[in-house]
């Protein structure tokens, strides 16, 4: 068991204007495991977009181009802060974790350019 994290895309038409708590079996864009600092960043985004579930688990938040720009900037400026949780793993952030952020941002931007909506989801 542990923190499994996903990004997926669906067509803009299917997603509509939904920002949080969207349920779908979209096309998987990316997968992370126990990258709790990124999960915490996504939880903060979820709350800023009106998300209200007590546990940020098995729920989603949408990322737009502005969010991706901010994620890229926060990651490059070491502003991703580890979060603790029973299933969250180590508090260390490894260089390869940071590389995955750049890979994800590039794929997400491409998906949005193609007319898709991008969401983050997790399960722990």
Task: Describe it.
The protein is α+β, with helices and mostly antiparallel strands and 124 residues long. The protein has one domain (4-123). The protein has four helices and four strands. The longest helix has 19 residues, at 95-113. The chain is globular and about 40 Å long. The N and C termini lie close together (7 Å).
Biggest sheet layout: 4 strands, antiparallel
**Poorly predicted tracts of residues:** none
| Largest sheet, spatial ordering of strands | 2-1-4-3
- Based on secondary structure, the structural category is alpha+beta
General shape: globular
In DSSP terms (H or I, runs of 4 or more residues), the helix count works out at 4
| Strand percentage | 15-25%
What is the percent of helical residues? Answer: 25-40%
Mean pLDDT: 92
Please give the alpha-carbon distance between the first and last residues: 7 Å
Overall domain count: 1
H and E string = EHEHEHHE
Question: What is the strand tally?
Answer: 4
Radius of gyration: 13 Å
Tag the structure with descriptive keywords.
4-stranded antiparallel beta sheet, 39% helix, 4 helices, 124 residues, alpha+beta
Task: Write the topology of this structure.
Elements (H helix, E strand, L loop, with lengths): L3 E8 H4 L11 E7 L2 H13 L11 E4 L1 H12 L18 H19 L2 E8 L1
Antiparallel strand pairs: 1-2, 1-4, 3-4
Helix pairs in contact: 3-4
